[in-house]
Amino acid sequence: MFRLNPHTAPPAVDYLLDARGYRLVDPSLTLHRRLDTWTMPDKLRGTLRSEPLLDWLGFYCQLSGKMPEQQTTHTAILQATPNPRIFATLWDRDQVVAFAVGVVSAQALSIVDVVTAPEHRQQGYGTALLYQIFAWAQHSGATDAALQVQADNAPAHALYARLGFREVYRYWYRVSP
């Protein structure tokens, strides 16, 4: 598997891999926004909680449809993330409606595994989740935020644009036949 982007891989590499049968997988974007001038808006939906990793993984599997037994590598990666980090869940009353992971390193917040439950999308929960993670990250010293999103995820693009994220670069994978 190769991860390619226009800044580090000459187009000839991508053409060569394509010619050899490597499939194009997950075209994605890296997005960025500044946090140093951001302030928390009033009246957000839900309550943010920081969960222990194993509890967070349970919610992740439940809402994303992933199987727990297939999460060995994912779990190892999350366990290895440095502090400060948050395994964030957004609760509305007695249920988890959205979640993500935030990691602060070198004054930058990296956000991964953002999911809103399908029945709670387009209701402000994604915005509330990310804004509350921004506040946590600022408290942890972050001045910038970055995340990745698949190129074909139009609803996520719209959300991230409303939250002030801008594209930094695109990347994709080539997977062996």
Structure write-up:
The protein is of the alpha+beta class. The protein has a domain at 36-142: 3-Layer(aba) Sandwich (Aminopeptidase), CATH 3.40.630.30. It has five helices and eight strands; from the N terminus they run E-H-E-E-H-H-E-E-E-H-E-H-E. Strands 1-8-2-7-6-5-4-3 form an eight-stranded mixed beta sheet, with helices on both faces. Strand 4 and strand 5 form a beta hairpin. The longest helix has 15 residues, at 125-139. The protein is globular.
Helix share bin? 25-40%
CATH hierarchy, class of the domain at 36-142 = Alpha Beta
Give the integer mean of the pLDDT values. 93
What about the largest sheet?
A: 8 strands, mixed
What spatial order of strands do you see in the largest sheet? 1-8-2-7-6-5-4-3
Number of helices: 5
Would you give the CATH topology of the domain at 36-142? Aminopeptidase
Q: Helix and strand string, N-terminal first?
A: EHEEHHEEEHEHE
Rg, alpha carbons = 17 Å
Give the tally of β-strands.
8
What would CATH call the homologous superfamily of the domain at 36-142? Gcn5-related N-acetyltransferase (GNAT)
Strand residues, percent: 35-45%
